[in-house]
Amino acid sequence: MSEKQQAGFRARVQKFGSFLSSMIMPNIGAFIAWGLITALFIPDGWFPNEDLAEMVGPMITYLLPLLIGFTGGRLVHGLRGGVVGATATMGVIVGADIPMFLGAMVIGPFSGLVIKYVDKLFEGKVKSGFEMLINNFTAGIAAGILAIVGYYVVGPVMAGLTNILGSAVEFLIGAGLLPLVNIFIEPAKILFLNNAINHGILSPIAVDQTQDLGKSILFLLESNPGPGLGVLLAFTIFGKGVSRQTAPGAAIIHFFGGIHEIYFPYILSKPALLLAVIAGGVSGTATFAALGVGLTATPSPGSIIAIGTLTARGDLLGVIAGVLIAALASFLVASLILKLSKKDEEDDLNQATAQMEQMKGKKSSVSGQLTKDEEANETSTEEAPSGNTEEVPSVREGDIDRIIFACDAGMGSSAMGASLLKNKFKKAGISIDVTNMAINDLPSDVDIVITHKDLTERAMQRVPEAHHISVDNFLNSPRYDELVNELQNDEKLEESQEKAQPAPSGNTAEVPAVDEKEIDRIIFACDAGMGSSAMGASLLKNKFKKAGINIDVTNMAINDLPSDVDIVITHKDLTERAMQRVPGAHHISVDNFLNSPRYDELVNELKEDE
């Protein structure tokens, strides 16, 4: 297999793992809740309680798989996909006698895909007044059929697969071979294949084991912070240049913050260090197995704090011992390799960080921590731009309600960046809400979005009306101080706004002066997104068809309005809400959806512009 083919294969596996992770990560809170209830209240728990322990079974059997199925369907086709996915998952649950996590990961996205194609099949073919009926029944019929398929096909197949994987794990544990699994897990983590391994294989089997035993060692295989800690401590003592300077901070972020990818560039700078993390992983898992310890749920992120919180009763000392032994083994091997190496690591670490980001397929969430000194020097001079493609906008504090740091997952470094800016705002006396989230979850009413430069274009497509600030890294950017200064300088802002007053957005509730070529999408919006708004959309579609106007007309709930809509038509009592939701769109207000002169006015306006 050529290098290009290998890279393509790795990228596909990473994408698959990322998709699996996207189904699991939003629901980690529920998994942790279940793990805590299990650890506390089962007969072998910290505080046995027969009544509260009754929640354990229903949560693992119904709640968690349904959440996964809903999330998987929603990833593919929004809320409709989520509802159909959750319903179909119920068939899988009933069709198997074990927790159906793998089944939910299959049937959820598949159901979303099915209803997506069903909706496309009926698009533009439904008569006026029948939209709600067709929408509800197509979803219901599809969900019912998929639930039956899940019961007879997906459930039994996934149950068989889970049993096979579980038997393989039991064989490895019984034969004392489980530590050897780390020979594959540790290199896979460096290649960013850990999501596919952890969420696709280990976690479903581990949850099944937890139901029977109250804990599972499998939760510790990939999340053990010991191997990475040992490598970073070795660099702290025996490293050189940038690697030695950054290793202590990286060790804190890795061990307590649980962001493991921060040590990957150190491994890539000296590939021989793979032996160190493998030695640490094998030693740690061997210790866990010998002491018979385990966790009650997936620790995410893999922080020592999360691991300690989810440790089964009586296992805390054993778990800590396994982590420390893993760190010691990794430290000893890494120290030997570093002492025998004469190569300068400074350039290696920078190159390895870039290599890591290339392998990951996107900007690392913590790479700025590894090159902070170098980037600080670059950004300290006015003539050396930071590489940001979007400048700090001219705004005033009174006009800004919300700033969001956005990245792929909405965690990791974006959370750190948000925390840094919050502190700067607090010191400057600026009262603006600062949060972090995934790009795909960005709301249309956000005022300023801060992203890494590689993700700014995606964020602009998601919320084109917001101000966008692009940074090289979230942990060290001059843009934060620029934004603070800009918000504090109200006089300058007022002058800049007067000089560059934006064109009116058309939010007058009247029919706007628009050109057909500039309009791609018109949406009728109401509270539920059905009923009369669907009928109004059908009426306007017919008028457009007769007039030869080719513009997409749909209907939906106000809360679901996308940021890229051009014209929104609402009842006059709801227009203000719609304006708040999508302030950049043109808004037309009507007395009723079934008989409004606005429709003919809009048709005439669009025809005149032709």
From TrEMBL:
This is PTS system mannitol-specific EIICB component. It comes from the Bacteria. Residues 489-498 have a biased composition (Basic and acidic residues). Residues 382-391 have a biased composition (Polar residues). One of its GO terms (cellular component) is plasma membrane. The chain crosses the membrane at residues 20-42, 98-118, 130-152, 164-185, 272-296, 316-338. One of its GO terms (biological process) is phosphoenolpyruvate-dependent sugar phosphotransferase system. Its main location: membrane. Pfam families: PTS_EIIC, PTS_IIB. Residues 354-393, 489-512 are annotated as: Disordered. It catalyses: D-mannitol(out) + N(pros)-phospho-L-histidyl-[protein] = D-mannitol 1-phosphate(in) + L-histidyl-[protein]. Keywords: Cell membrane, Membrane, Phosphoprotein, Phosphotransferase system, Sugar transport, Transferase, Transmembrane, Transmembrane helix, Transport. Residues 401-495, 520-610 form the PTS EIIB type-2 domain. It is a multi-pass membrane protein. It is an enzyme of class 2 (transferase). It is found in: Cell membrane. GO terms for molecular function: protein-N(PI)-phosphohistidine-mannitol phosphotransferase system transmembrane transporter activity; protein-phosphocysteine-sugar phosphotransferase activity. The keyword Cell membrane applies. Residues 16-339 form the PTS EIIC type-2 domain. The phosphoenolpyruvate-dependent sugar phosphotransferase system (sugar PTS), a major carbohydrate active transport system, catalyzes the phosphorylation of incoming sugar substrates concomitantly with their translocation across the cell membrane. The enzyme II CmtAB PTS system is involved in D-mannitol transport. Its EC number is 2.7.1.197. SUPFAM superfamilies: PTS system IIB component-like.
